[in-house]
Amino acid sequence: MTFSSSYLFGLTTFIYMGAAALYLIRWIFRVRKVGLLATFVTISGLVIQTVAIGLRWIESYQLGYGHAPLSNLYESLVFFSWITVLVYLIIEWQTRQRVIGAFTTPFASLSMAYASFSPNIEDKIQPLIPALKSNWLIAHVVTCFLGYASFAVACGLGIMYLFKNRYSGASGGLIGVMPDCKILDELIHQTIIFGFLWLSLGIITGAIWANDAWGTYWSWDPKETWSLITWFVYATALHARFVRGWTGRRIAYLSIIGFVSVLFTYFGVNFLLSGLHSYGSQ
Amino acid sequence: MKILSSTYQDTSIWRFFSSVRLAVFLLITLAITSIIGTVIPQGETLQFYLETFGPNFFRIIKALHLYDTYHSWWYLTLLGLFSINLIICTLRRLPFTLKLCRRDSLSLDSERLLKMPFKKDWETKKELDNDSTQSIISAFKKVGGKSRERDGVDGGRLFLAERGKWSYWGVYALHGSILIIFIGALVGLFLGFKGSVMLPEGETIDYIVNRQTGKRISLGFSVRCNRFNIAFYDNGAPKEYRSDLTVLNDDKEVFHKSIVVNDPMKYKGITFYQASYRAIPEVTVQVSNSDNMQRSLTISAFQKTIWPEEQLSFSLIQYQPNVHGRPAAQIWIADNEGRAGNFWLLEGREREFKQSGNLYKMSLSTAKQRYLTGLQVKKDPGVWIVWLGCTVLIAGFSVVFWVPHRRLWLWIGRRKGRTYVILSGQTNKNKLQLEKDIKKIEEALNSNLGVGQ
């Protein structure tokens, strides 16, 4: 079957890598028309990936398993890139700043490339183990990954801010085409607020699910604890800004530290620590 | 934002506990120290830590309770400080918020309105007639919504369209929600319990064992496991663990539920979760004595089966499903004087054995697995308080960040011998929307006042 989900996911990987390259070209060589092409390529990648996710869902029913494609590391990486691209496109549509694409689409293409090319990642559709058989699976994964994706975008914006701030004298060139520091700062803040809400909802849906599955809404499992650590980092960023007036560089740094914590919550816990969430590592 | 607290004694302790600096410090400290418990395995025996980390680290681990980090004295102290900080910050903010809410937004003069961040003004030489005044006001109300009016403000009429003043209380909901969650956790800790039980198929139990203390907790009713079943996918992965449970009250069946992982049984505030299982072998044997008196006995591991007439007891030591293509069982046997022995039994082969001077014959008729279902049992009356806290947290957060307090003013009056119309606005969030609203009113007023065309 050529028109299978795995074929389309492979295609998506190359399209996203192409889109990231186009956004970088748009930024570095300042060819405006390439920017439009980059957006077009990204949107078509998103459409193909959406179809692929839908197909994989259908295929799992054909195999007799019947579950949403959100159950293992491969599927979560695919979903992470999908939702990151979606969050980015919304921001591009609202701000009309294509430079941001050069700093956010690489996250999505890296995620897809890792899912597709790593020999350690099982990409077959697997049946759900009893612990994952719950209506909370979709709500929990979607909310968590909306948070992760927002924080990925915030991190990209934070890196941009630090670039821009470092060479603030440059009016033209690579730095000149970036949005104003003030706009970037506000965007980082808004993205963190958005991500924080979803992370909170992700933790809450996880707690409700855990209460149904394991009989306790909080068991200090490493994954839970790390999501709380991430929550603390972003809560610090919000408080420091709101009450102590931290803006600019400090918030940019916090957006990067926060994303490192997100990455550890996502991958580090799976690979380095053991716990109840171990199914995420296969 | 500076918060004044003239109403409270400004002692240094008060200031310390109410400072946001402390809040930020605590958030960072909690973030960093929480890492410890994810790196060091939790809840192992002290011996384990000594062997894994060596004597030096072991001393630190023991002193700081790093084997149970999140319940250690210093972590709980941090959480306690966090709560105190939250409460005092809230109390200290309260007068400020009350003042904000009681503030009269209609006692302003035209000068102040002209200094607002968003403003637009018109002046005309001629007096405004009643009709155009009315249409200006209705254009303002159409965008601004419900509004209040005061005459004689700075010699004119002042209209105020205010929205979302209550949003100042959002931050109290948000911070209060953390305390609600803590209270819910404490209620669960003191009024609830967590326990577990291994229940063999067909057996009934009216108590469980507390997971922390190891003590028995009486349920007040009994639970019987009718059946345990495990299903597999084609590839051999487990598909479903299912326990068929019946609740009995004074030997009367009162409730029935078949539970699987993610779908527990709730009865009288106590919840039973499918947590684990164990399979124990069970064999049925035919045994006869020298008088040819025959009995059928069921023998399983971890249990004694008694043959009362002969005063013999049996148990299963080992079970092998395949010895030379047949199941085999190692049987333990003892008489009432404590003399014991054991022997192997192969299916299809009768064997003789001697016990207490008598000769017996035994043969293995059937062998099967008998399941024990592992149930997690919990009572937590605080869980609804925790869910309430979570709901308030999300609602409070949304109010704090997305519900703006927006005020729009319209002043119509006379300044320096001319008729003035001033439109101004202020908001604490979403300035874009305010700009749009002002633009909309501005366009309507432009056409009313005959300018901009």
How would you describe this structure to a colleague?
The complex is a heterodimer of chains A (282) and B (453). Chain A is built from nine helices and no strands. With 282 residues, chain A is mainly α. Chain A folds into two domains: 120 residues; 153 residues, no CATH class. The two termini of chain A are 25 Å apart. Chain B is α+β, with helices and mostly antiparallel strands and 453 residues long. Chain B has four domains: 90 residues; 104 residues, Sirohaem synthase, central domain (Double Stranded RNA Binding Domain); 110 residues, Tick-borne Encephalitis virus Glycoprotein, domain 1 (Sandwich), CATH 2.60.98; 91 residues, no CATH class. In chain B, 34% of the residues lie in helices and 40% in strands. In chain B, strands 4, 5, 6, 7, 8, 9, 10, 11, 16 and 17 form a ten-stranded antiparallel beta sheet that branches. In chain B, strands 1-19-18-3-2 form a five-stranded antiparallel beta sheet. The two termini of chain B are 43 Å apart. The N terminus of chain B is likely disordered. At the A-B interface, helix 7 and helix 8 of A face helix 2, strand 7, strand 10, strand 17 and helix 8 of B.
**Main sheet record of chain B:** 10 strands, antiparallel
From the spread of the alpha carbons, the general shape of chain B counts as: elongated
Number of strands of chain B: 19
Percentage of β-strand residues of chain B: 35-45%
Largest interface, by Cβ-Cβ below 8 angstroms: which chains and how many residues each?
Answer: A-B, 44 and 47 residues
Termini separation of chain A comes to 25 Å
List strands and helices in order, with pairings.
The complex is a heterodimer of chains A (282) and B (453).
Chain A: H1 5-28, H2 32-62, H3 73-95, H4 99-117, H5 136-166, H6 173-176, H7 181-213, H8 222-244, H9 249-272
Chain B: H1 12-18, H2 20-39, H3 46-63, H4 73-102, H5 110-114, E1 118-124, H6 130-144, E2 148-153, E3 156-163, H7 170-191, E4 193-200, E5 204-210, E6 216-232, E7 238-249, E8 252-260, E9 265-267, E10 270-288, E11 294-300, E12 305-307, E13 312-323, E14 326-335, E15 340-346, E16 351-355, E17 358-379, H8 383-402, E18 406-415, E19 418-427, H9 431-449
Helix pairs in contact in B: 2-4, 4-7, 6-9, 7-8
